[in-house]
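Notebook, student rotation project (T.W.).
Task set for the rotation: take a protein with a known small-molecule partner, predict the structure of the complex, and write up what can be learned from the model alone. Partner molecule chosen: flavin-adenine dinucleotide. Sequence and SMILES entered below by T.W., checked by me.
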Amino acid sequence: MKSVIIIGGGIIGLCSAYYLAKEGVTVTIIDKSDMADGCSYGNAGMIVPSHIIPMAQPGVIHQGIKWMFNAKSPFYIKPALSLDLLSWLIQFYKNSNQDHVNKSMVPLRNLSFFSKELYREFAQSANEFGYQEKGLLMLYNSEKMGEEELKTGKVAEELGIEVDFLNQQEVKELEKNIAVNALGAVHYKSDAHLSPNHFIAFLKSELNRMGVKLISNCSLVDFKVSEGKIAELLTNQGNFKADEFVIAAGSWSVEVAKKLGVKLHILPGKGYSFNVENLIVKPTIPTILCEGKVAVTPIGETVRFGGTMEITNNNDTKINIKRLQGIVEKVNQFYPDIKVNLPEKEKVWHGFRPCTPTGLPIIEKSKRIKNLTIATGHAMMGLSLAPASGKLVSELLMGKKTSIDITEFRSC
Ligand SMILES: Cc1cc2nc3c(=O)[nH]c(=O)nc-3n(C[C@H](O)[C@H](O)[C@H](O)COP(=O)(O)OP(=O)(O)OC[C@H]3O[C@@H](n4cnc5c(N)ncnc54)[C@H](O)[C@@H]3O)c2cc1C
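Predicted structure of the complex:
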């Protein structure tokens, strides 16, 4: 029986393990953390076929520079004398054009819809994680933002995504329970959401049932390579052997791959979230407050607010209060009925999105190491794209034809 070790037990590693175990493979996941609170847990839980335009797009650099000078803005690049940062920025600059967007949209859409289909399958077997298909509201309160959102919505519509364009009154009719201070919204009816923490708990119990070994607090130290193949993993909990290996280590994938001489361009995009319980009135549909890029997700009785993208390093765990204030202010502007207070630092979760300079994930067999597969770089869509990515990893490892074309999902 084929054996596989997956390095990284975030949502990408867990979904890869799930589909590999279904193929009858013996799977072990090692993770350096206690697998309880990483990027895959506190995220906004949105499943977003609406997100067809990659982060690298025309205008993004101009907007990014403007935001760099506003301490409360949703975007920041932490300056550093680092070759990794420099080469990432050069690649990002090269990809931020319309040609790149044009060739990325269809592959992204296909990956997203494939993933949503797989989420539906999970939910049909046991919806223990609050999966709901209520769509996603992109709320805006300025004419300029409205124009941009409408343009994006029209492009999505042309690609077969179901979209409603709502004026102020129509937004009010949809979100009846709470006053919404917005000029209008684009409602992507294709989108869905769930509770990430509950979905991960569900996946872990499925994996346990299927005999997958999950080893937490187990950090990769090095690899033993022989004849172009990984022969052994050296970890703080001893050495492990397997036929095949998967790197799914999120924003740490760069340092893991580097030990094998494999170069990946990924930087962590730090973001925050916090939960507010017991609101008397609350939004019912997952929403992005466009001017602040703030995500609002109703999860059971809780509402989760999240945002900011700080391109930084994996050691930068500091909570930036000014940026958090930016999130809180936007929430209070858009929802005058609720008064959200700045949360205490201890109540704020942070996570590192693994960001590639193309804005596309990497799902590929390594060209350098024969028994290595890489699945990472999902940035702000890792939850959304995880089941499809996991299934594709299993197809690659089993030598099957992949369910969708993955040519664009390669490292650069
Ligand atoms: C504020 C915020 C909101 C978000 N909202 C959404 C959303 O609504 N929808 C969506 O689709 N996505 C969202 N995301 C993005 C999503 O959370 C990520 O894309 C996703 O969690 C990445 O998963 P991953 O498995 O690749 O990485 P991770 O979850 O980071 O997992 C990688 C794992 O690898 C382990 N690891 C690293 N190095 C080693 C090593 N040397 N040895 C062993 N183990 C190692 C780590 O401990 C970690 O557990 C959001 C992110 C943030 C920050």
